[in-house]
Specification:
There is one protein chain. The chain has 124 residues and is mainly alpha-helical. The chain has a domain of 77 residues. 60% of the residues lie in helices and 5% in strands. Strands 1-2 form a two-stranded antiparallel sheet. The longest helix is centred in the middle third of the chain and has 41 residues. It starts with a helix and ends in a 9-residue tail after the last strand. The model has no long low-confidence stretch (mean pLDDT 79).
Length: 124
């Protein structure tokens, strides 16, 4: 996942080069030896538009990849408790199993499960 983060950072930083490209065009228009024509400026701007559409699209793709990896990591981390131990699959209990006062049965001193209604017969 860390490579994806660095790749995303690189893509974002690469998008900042639009500022340098605009500065280059600006300098050419004002200070260049040959002043570009309106058509040349239009072509440069259209080319920059397409180029940065690609760059931003690739950056967003990298962001989506990062989100997917984060989701997978989050799911994996959900399998661990706050101490870092892997959680066993949770066994589902009825309330009756968990609350001794609500049970209709109990274990006697010999480990035999007996019904509270009739103490003489073991329950199954």
């Amino acid at each position: 996942m860390s490579n994806i983060i660095f790749d995303l950072e690189q893509k974002i930083m690469d998008c900042w080069s639009v500022v340098d490209d605009i500065e280059t065009l600006y300098a050419q228009i004002l200070d260049g030896n040959v002043e570009p024509t309106t058509d040349e400026i239009s072509n440069v701007l259209l080319g920059m538009k397409q180029l940065y559409q690609y760059k931003f699209s690739q950056t967003f793709d990298k962001f989506e990849e990062l989100c997917k990896e984060h989701g997978k990591l989050k799911q994996t981390m959900h399998n661990f408790d706050h101490h870092g131990y892997y959680r066993q699959s949770q066994r589902h209990f009825d309330v009756e199993d968990l609350d001794p006062d609500k049970r209709s049965w109990y274990y006697d001193g010999n480990g035999v499960r007996r019904s509270k209604v009739d103490d003489s017969t073991p329950s199954s």
